[in-house]
Each structure stands twice: as C-alpha cells, then as structure tokens.
Amino acid sequence: MLPLCTTEETNNAYRDAQRLVRLLTELPTARLIPLAFVSTYVVSVPIITFAVFHPGTVPGGPGWGKNDPIKIIVLGGILAPLLETAVTQWACIRLLKKLRLPTGMAIVLSAAFFGLGHTYSTLYISMMFFVGLVLGSVFAIEDARAGHPFLATLAVHALRNWVTAGLTRFVL
Fold this sequence. Notes:
mainly alpha
C-alpha cells in the first residue's frame, strides 16, 4: 500500500501550518476579526454548494432573519453569541487546555460542540462545525497572545449572526 504522502510532503505541510499560525498570531486583533468574519463564510462554501446541487437537502438555520429586527439584534447578535462563546469557546477550550489537550484538539472539540448546538439539520451542524473551527481559532490566537479572546470571538460571532440575519431578511 502506498503512503498518502511522503515524509517530506508531511514536513512541508507542517512547516506551512506553523507559518500560518505564526502569521495569524502576529496579526493585530483589528485585522484578525474581519479576516475571521469573512472566513466563517468561506468555510461554509462547500456545505452551501452541496445544498445547492442537492435540492432535497435543507441547510436549515434559526430563521431569525424573518423576525422582528429588535429580536434579531437582541437574540442573534447579543444573547446567542454571548452564551455560545461562553460555553463552546471560553469554557470548553479553557477546560480542555487544563486537561492538557493540545490547542488544536481543543479547537476541534470546541467546534464539534458548537456544531452540535445548531441542530437545525445535519448540513447546518456540519456548516457550524467549520464556523466553530474559525471561532475556536480566534479564541486560541487571542488567548495565546494574552489578548481578549472572549471579546474578539464574540465580535466575530455577533457580526456573523447580524450579517446572516440581514442577508436572510433582505436578500434570500
């Protein structure tokens, strides 16, 4: 059986990943937040593409965009991000790090919990897992540089919810 990749390819991929982590860690928070915000949509593209080409599948979602604008702002942009950031990034990643799990594993497990908290459909859980990877990464990056991990993650999450609700209400 042939290996999937050579040792040299694995080493190169590892070095590239280290460079990316270093680049993101050096990025100021004011640039990290918009980059992460855009990334939450970029990581959703494969799931959305699947849904488009498989009409029987329904991605689902909370449907806040069809509600009262005040409800959207309060629930989608403030309460949900506060609660979800507290539970699935702050508490989860901090607990897993205390249990000595590597940061990458803590981010993946945090993203899994984040995805499972969005049980509108299997597709939506999958999409939110990838969004959770971005949010967990923001938390870990800000935490590693002694920034404000909760606030930075909350900002990305709230912004994403507000924009998604606006798109749902006015465009889709």
